[in-house]
Amino acid sequence: MVVKAVIFDLHGTIVEYKVNSKAARAEVTQYLISQGIPPSFFSPSESYFEALNKLEEHLRDRPIEGKTYHQLRDAVFNILDKYELENISSTRLTPGMLETLKTLRKKGLKLGLLTVNGQKATDRLLSKFRLNGYFQAVITRESAPRLKPHPLHLETLLRLLEVSPQEAVVVGDSTSDIKVAHALKALAVSVLGGIAQKDELIRAGADYLSNSPADLVGIIEKLS
């Protein structure tokens, strides 16, 4: 395998970032129900991003008068922006990550950022830690027609980087990062200590596990 690009998740991978996900999910669910989406639409095993991925099809079959998919999606994104922006001041860069990004760039690898975070929070975080110059392409939730684990999210980023899935490694802390990588037959490296437990990542099929950013460099070197 020839690795040409490394695709990073943001929240839980590049930065250690606290968001009140429980409250955000509750407000998103309450809002969509108030707009006519039935409670039965929501599954406790799905993230609100997975719910959004199936919302357009739901509205096609059961339209809501005066509301389009894009209007509802934008309203949900605004709710999420509120929760993501409130804790940026307490966010910190994952220890060792800056050195890892520098090393990977020196090796001539393309770096991409694939995140379900919004553009506002992503811009603030990249600016805060002076990371803008490390990524050749950044795809936030506003930039893709569907969100991970849907493959269209990753496909959008790979097109910008001009690499094939087989030339890319996806690095993240959740099972959705594994699913989106494997949907396109890219390799998935799961970082420990984030949103998902080690056994969850193994069950989801992580190709490699990384205990630290320094481990990641060794994994990429091994693959190349």
Short synopsis of the structure:
The protein has about 220 residues and is α/β, with parallel strands linked by helices. The chain contains 9 helices and 8 strands.
Question: H/E series, N to C?
Answer: EEHHHEHEHEHEHEHEH
**Radius of gyration based on Cα positions:** 17 Å
Secondary structural class: alpha/beta
Sheet with most strands: strand arrangement: 5-4-1-6-7-8
Query: Helical proportion?
Result: 40-55%
> Which CATH architecture of the largest domain is right?
3-Layer(aba) Sandwich
| Number of helical regions | 9
**Whole-number tally of structural domains:** 2
> What integer is the average pLDDT?
93
| Number of E strands | 8
CATH topology of the largest domain: Rossmann fold
CATH superfamily of the largest domain: HAD superfamily/HAD-like
Overall shape: it is globular
In whole angstroms, the N-to-C terminal distance is: 6 Å
Low-confidence residue ranges: none
- For this structure, what is the CATH class of the largest domain? Alpha Beta
Summarize the main sheet.
6 strands, parallel
Percent of sequence in beta strands: 5-15%
Provide tags for this entry.
6-stranded parallel beta sheet, Rossmann fold, 224 residues, two-stranded antiparallel sheet, single chain, alpha/beta
Task: Tell me about this structure.
With 224 residues, this protein is of the alpha/beta class. It has two domains: 5-16 and 92-223, HAD superfamily/HAD-like (Rossmann fold, 3-Layer(aba) Sandwich), CATH 3.40.50; 21-85. It is 46% helix and 13% strand. It has nine helices and eight strands. It has helices spanning 21-34, 48-61, 69-85, 97-106, 119-128, 151-161, 175-183, 198-204, 213-223, and strands at 5-8, 15-16, 92-93, 110-114, 137-139, 168-172, 187-191, 208-210. Strands 5-4-1-6-7-8 form a six-stranded parallel beta sheet, sandwiched between helices. A two-stranded antiparallel sheet has the order 2-3. Helix 1 (21-34) runs antiparallel to helix 3 (69-85). It is globular, with a radius of gyration of 17 Å. It starts with a strand and ends with a helix.
